[in-house]
Amino acid sequence: MQKFYKFPWRQVLKFIGVLGLIIVSNLFFQLMQNDFSFDLAVKFAFSWHTQKFFLGCFVLLVFFGWLSSLLGSLRIGVLAYLLVVLGIGSANFLKMNYRMEPIYPDDLKMITEFGMIRDMVGLPIFLLFLLLLAAAIFLLIFSWKQSVNLEKKQQWLRIACFVLTSSLLVYIGSFNQQNNLLRKAYDKTALWIPYSQKMNYYNTGFIGGFLYNLPVEAMEKPKGYSEETVKKIVKKYQVSSKKTTEKPNIIYIMSESFSDPSRLNGLEILGGDPLQAYRSVADKTYSGQMLSQNYGGGTANIEFEALTGFSMELFNAQMTTPYTMLVPEFSSFPSLVETLKKRGYETTAIHPYNTSMYKRKDVYRTFGFDHFLDEQTMKHKKKLENNPYISDEAAYREVFDQLKNKQPQFLHLVTMQTHMPYENKYSDVSYTAKGDSSLAVKNYLQDIAYSSEALNNFLKKLDQLPKRTLVVFWGDHLPGIYSDTIQAANQGPLLHETEFLMYDNRHELAQQQVTTSPFYFAADLFHQGNLPLTGFQNLLLALQKEWPAFEKEMYYQSGKWFKEAPVNKAQEEIYQNYQMIQYDITTGEQYSLQENFFE
Hints:
Elements: H1 2-6, H2 9-33, H3 38-48, H4 50-71, H5 74-99, H6 114-121, H7 123-147, H8 152-173, H9 181-187, H10 197-212, H11 227-237, E1 249-255, E2 268-270, H12 276-282, E3 286-291, H13 299-308, H14 322-325, H15 336-341, E4 346-350, H16 360-367, E5 371-373, H17 392-402, E6 409-414, E7 432-434, H18 439-462, E8 469-475, H19 484-489, E9 497-504, E10 512-516, H20 521-528, H21 535-546, E11 549-551, E12 554-557, E13 560-562, H22 569-586, H23 591-594
Parallel strand pairs: 1-6, 1-8, 3-10, 4-5, 4-6
Antiparallel strand pairs: 2-7, 3-9, 8-9, 11-12, 12-13
Helix pairs in contact: 2-3, 2-4, 2-5, 2-10, 3-4, 4-5, 4-8, 4-10, 5-7, 6-7, 11-21, 12-18, 17-18, 20-21, 21-22
Pfam families: Sulfatase
Keywords: Cell membrane, Membrane, Transmembrane, Transmembrane helix
InterPro entries: Alkaline_phosphatase_core_sf, OpgB/LTA_synthase_biosynth, Sulfatase_N
């Protein structure tokens, strides 16, 4: 009996308690991911994907051990761990609801973007976030002070645990490297779906999906990649063409969430056409629909495609955000900015928000912009009613100020007026929608009506300029506000098509309606505007003839959409040439850059 009492039951109970905590926390992640469906979470854990669930538990146990040893207290470690789990799980729930995609490892870098978080989730949730963050900081400081008083034996145990768990976390961090044992354990039962990160998280669990998106090479090395192969491609497309030597102003306008709700099945707009002012211009010029990578988000990825000519579809699935994961690693990166600078243009980026969102300050520096105007440095900052963002009208006034310079201008504007949240922006809303009459939808309709009018007025003002000015305007993605019913009725391209137009203040562009992808914009504009093309743009135009628009599982060809693109031998060669160049720049040796392929 005495031996029974001497047995370390307290330690055993603590260990059992920790295991229970890990299992419950992993179930919490599944709950958040599955929209609070307890049934789905339990079935995932104990019926459908048990092995993957407990692999995720192992990762969480290692993290818990690391956190507790860092803080020097099991009790405080539990509190800190719960704060982390609550924070990440809630963030995943919100992102899945607003943008239909999960939290990625790279998203954690945004934790200090307080302004963005406040605007995205609203004041109440933001205040809760600050409270959790403050509690975490307090625990960190308090535990460090307490840990100094630990006995020598406890300190050594703590250090050993910290070294062990740190080593394991480093190894877990190499999840996507060849021969990683944890990855191999997942691969035995995991069905990875590169084209759908949402399904990856559903099929492998939150932890499995999160690990899958840890750092990886931007692209797999194409078969036959070499300097000789790249030079052959360059030679093929690096052909001179007789074009005008004129240097018109060029303006890019990426309009936040600008799209046409009337194109959606099950939605009928009442109260008039919010895009009437837009259509009065678009119907008379080169315009149509643009294929966006995501629904409800992905702004930076569309911007990356438009400025570089590189497609997100070609990247490894884990390369979720090149602006934060790829571009900052380079001192310079070929883009439209660099091409125009070498032709004597002054280049300016304008974003009426903070500079750190998506690392734009670093990215714009890498692209080579001469100037970056943001909400702090802009002259015009007018807002509409209760809208928390600088209006499109004010942003266009900022653009117009730059056009007064004698040097040819490339101006890249990323607007914010029509950014979420949409509720209660305007006191007088003229529109509603049959099929989804939520407050968010009503305010969104009013938002795009104001945006449409502002664009129309801006283009009319451009007509008065003596210097030729070309404009590319597009919406980056649909807003993530539509009901599940509307989303279900519009699965596929309809949830990814936004409006775009190209405009010439001399009205010399073809009047044509097309479907396109943003990585074609520069090549298409130069072609339509009769400007000298780079070798890379010639390659893009050849690709565009075969696939006018494409993203993962959405390929537009011969006026129809396909989940897999029909390919003949000639088309495959063009696609492989494009793939080779993108790999060469983003992951390879940049042989094409040395051959002036982008000039």
